[in-house]
């Protein structure tokens, strides 16, 4: 059975969120060797390639409770989570050639503080030191504080290890004195690092040979055993008992005779790395051979055996090679990792709790992604790897989660939670209803036997959170919104009856600060903004992690100013009794004087006492009971009724005045149908006064309230905003704005008749054209003076007609729209000229030139009409050109002939091309053709009706050759020349 240990494992309770304060994930990230790294996660292991550390041996890494990297070191330099050297993170007194150059230990119950313990190389004078890291520094990335290189002991061998105190809250850091047999155990507690060690003089002397300083020292995960390797010495490996309650090392056992231990070997030989199994029952040792043997081994020992001889007899060589095997280190996955310098991987012992081959030594079991380890791997607090009962949560009323840290195959389990409740689940959850100390037992049935574990758990009171009201103060006369708040006055409300001896209350500016107890506020706190949220942390004085956070606001409410109100003089109504109904809200805007209605409330009271106390507010409308009468306005902060001011208001009832009802005003919609028009409001003045004598001020307003207060008068010429729209008129005697009457009338914009479209028409010269206005209107007036819906015109020009429509809402108003007719003249075209371009086979053109007042279009041979007067791409032929007016005022035409000549002819008697003549010549009777030989001699002449030339001259056949021609067109006076070929 394991010893009972008082465990103080912290749980943070905040708004239903539970966070585990201690878990194995602090060892989730490793950085070591030559920029090598390893991450342990739910999916397994993953090589890290971002490390900056290069070391031959010693190194250390620490992560947070969730497995996020915090920082790492080689004992000299400290790198933060972003792999940058921290500003003060150099010059630590470890050494990259020290076996255990550094180990990192958190400060209990403080999420920000860690200590780096360093051991110098080879028993050097720098000895054992510690430096403090504050994670709140360096923008939350951590840095070394002024507590740097604080020496605890000198000199020491290259050995330092750490383990949980039995109380589950503190830690022991253990080293050894050089050239003595004394162990030094230093306590790390809430108070920091104790410089008064527990000293145990036991075992062999370390030194004076500096090589004796080499080799690892480890404490078993359950804290019960301590082992160390002494390289190149007669003692080889020593095994001790360790007491986690007292820090005492005792009962030495020497394990010798099975290692390479010849002090004369060069390089020296012997054990170097060592590690316990997760269940603390098996010890592993790496053994270095000499140059002569070139042999390196991994040993396994069963340390449950009763004597040293029995333990040595259990020695099993799991692996032996001719290259270096160095550090051994447990991982949080329960496996044991072996550093093999020179290879980009680590060997893995898969089942380190198992003896012999069942331990399953895997060569190259973890790939390092091209990075190489050196001799060292990062050590951790050995408790991280403890087997047996693990639990999360030690606050009453909150789930405590239990689990089993073992690699054994489990058949069944039996839990006893120590409060009368049990479970057979592998990982049960249990709620302790009351605080106290509970002894938890676990029996595990495994193949071949049973295992039993015990843990003593202290369950602490959990604070109860209730709603806390805002802390509100009135601003001082400075009006800067800044005041001093005595936060201690909120403590009783925060505790809500809970004992201040059991719970402590602190105040913070953020929930994160509260959860990490960082930057607590002074009790006399000056706010920096309003509202400003404050977070109150209620924590158990014995276990600060049993806590809760509640938020409330600090508010500085403005003190309002009650602006003075000018005495109100009202006109008496039809009954001259000196009493009127008064709408009190009319004073609101004056009292506020621009202060926000959302921030301040205004009320009215009959006397100053009620106004100061906010009592008996008057109901509006109010009927005055005396004339004159003084009432009192109170303005107060909407969020704090204690922030207020008052002012008196005098009300007087004067004579009578009447605002007579004027006629409504209508106008036609002249602005495109949007219902907006311009109105002369002052034209209503005469009707409103209606022969009353005296001098009056008349103003016009958009609302009754505006008319009653006389605020926001409208300009004399007003453009309506809605249609129709009510206008309110206020009349008051000149010099007495408090005696007034109001009336109202409507302004309306009468819509115009439906919009009509202008038209364009064409009149043929000599004919009449009918112009017709749209149907369905009430009146028509043409620019010709006619009043019929349609008229006839003979001349081109612009004609307009005003189309009128009576208003359906205002019968006296007729609104007009104007329609415009544009009349153009048109006539039959006159063909002035026709130009032709012929003498081609298919690319001839005809262009027609005309005169006339119309718009014309053109066609050939009654084909499609086109706007262009030119026709292209024509074959030689006869054509008729047609021209018509687009408005239908007539069509004219003229014939056109396109000529062409053959390029050759063959008068050889075969009836093909026997003669040569101009194509289409017969269409031009006056055509004259002359033919010449190549020397210019006239051969023949003929006209349009001739069959042409037959290729002879004076009855003789002319030879094959080119001949020239000249064509005269008497009709146009044009002459054409060219040449062709006679072929025989």
Provide an overview of this structure.
It comes from Winogradskyella pelagia. The protein has 984 residues and is mainly beta. The strands form 22 sheets. Strands 1-38-37-34-35 form a 5-stranded mixed beta sheet, with no helix packed on it. Strands 10, 11, 12, 13 and 14 form a 5-stranded antiparallel beta sheet that branches. Strands 15, 16, 17, 18 and 19 form a 5-stranded antiparallel beta sheet that branches. Mean pLDDT is 88; it is low at 1-23.
Number of strands: 75
Arithmetic mean of pLDDT: 88
- The class by helix and strand makeup works out as mainly beta
Tally of individual helices: 8
Order of strands in the sheet with the most strands?
Answer: 1-38-37-34-35
Spatial shape: flat
- Percentage of residues in DSSP E strands: 35-45%
What Rg do the Cα atoms give? Answer: 57 Å
Low-confidence stretches: 1-23
- Name the helicity range: under 10%
Largest sheet, in brief, is:
5 strands, mixed
Cα-to-Cα separation, first versus last residue: 136 Å
InterPro entries: Ig-like_fold (IPR013783), PKD/Chitinase_dom (IPR022409), PKD_dom (IPR000601), PKD_dom_sf (IPR035986), Quino_amine_DH_bsu (IPR011044), T9SS_type_B (IPR026341), WD40/YVTN_repeat-like_dom_sf (IPR015943)
Protein name: T9SS type B sorting domain-containing protein
Pfam families: CHU_C (PF13585), PKD_4 (PF18911)
Keywords: Signal
